[in-house]
Each structure stands twice: as structure tokens, then as C-alpha cells.
Amino acid sequence: MESADAATFDESYYARYYFDKKTKVADPQHVERLGAFVSAYLKYLRVPVQRVLDVGCGVGLWRDIVAHHFPQASYQGVEISEYLCARYGWERGSVVDYQAQAPFDFVICQGVLAYLSPVDLKRALRNLGTLSHGALYVEAVTLEDYENDIVDEDLTDPLLFRHRAGLYRQGLSRKFKGLGGGLWLSRRADVPLFSLECAVE
What pTM was estimated for this model as a whole? Predict the structure, then answer.
């Protein structure tokens, strides 16, 4: 099976999952709570945030979050969708192989990885380790989420791959320490952590 291609993410896709009140998956209150949590935890850990990469940024929900909580930081949106790049001015690219001149302090990858085939997923997880030398936020639906009936399949895109959670953790743990709540800290980051602030490795 192949990863979802750029043509998947056209105007009709975003109309359904982001703009139609009956079928959208992005709840503004949820995004606000999530952004406040992630930002507060990064501030608590004293992770310096000057450069932010939102890879697979979609309609840019994180842009306002970053501007509010880290007003001194630059925000770089990267998106595979030609439609969104034309509409919002994002840089065209994919988490699988996007390259930057220098790593970022904080990388966001929300709702992207489950669209990738197993081969591309492994490449993307390695690439995230290159793109971030600080923090990483990852959100992806896993096979276990379906098995535990956490996913609303009427709203969830049927094109998503059902990768096991362990596949994500294994790929990320090579370059990151898991902090819980979808947050990961690069092993290159000069940020002291108490043992119980890290997930068991």
C-alpha cells in the first residue's frame, strides 16, 4: 500500500474535515486546550523556543498558538497540499523528506503520520529526529485506538493506516525521549529531566 498522495488533500478534503460544521474534526476549543498544555509544558521544562516548524500544518491551527505562547518565535508552515500552499502561502514539502538548513527548537506533526505507508512512516520518523534538536509534538491515530473504540470512525478519514503505537514509539525513541501527552524531547537537547518526567524506555 502507498501513502496518501498530495492530490488527496484538495479543497474538498478540507471542506469536509475542517470547514463543514457537521463533519469537521478540528474543534477550536480542543485545539486551544492542547496548545495551552503543550506550550505550558515546554515553558515549564525551559525548552527554548525560537524557531518552530509545523510539518503538515494544514490550515495553520498552530500558527496562532505559537504566536500567543511564544511571540518571539518564528513559525514555518510546511504542507504537501498544493491547494493549501496556494491558499495560505505555506512551503511545499512532506514530513518524509523535508529538509531545512538548520534544526528547529520545536516541531509539530499533528494528524499527518497515519497517512503514511509503513516504509514512508519509518523515513518520516527518522526525518523528525533530524528536524528537531529540541521538542516534538506528535499526534497520530493508532491501531490500538481503533481496537479500544476511541476513534469515531464516522468522522475519521478511512484512508488512515492503522499502525501500532509501538511502531511510532520505536521510531521516535532513537532520537527522542518520550515525555507523555504526545510530547518528545530530542536527545540532543540540553534540558535536564527528572527520571519520572520521562516515559519508560
Answer: 0.95
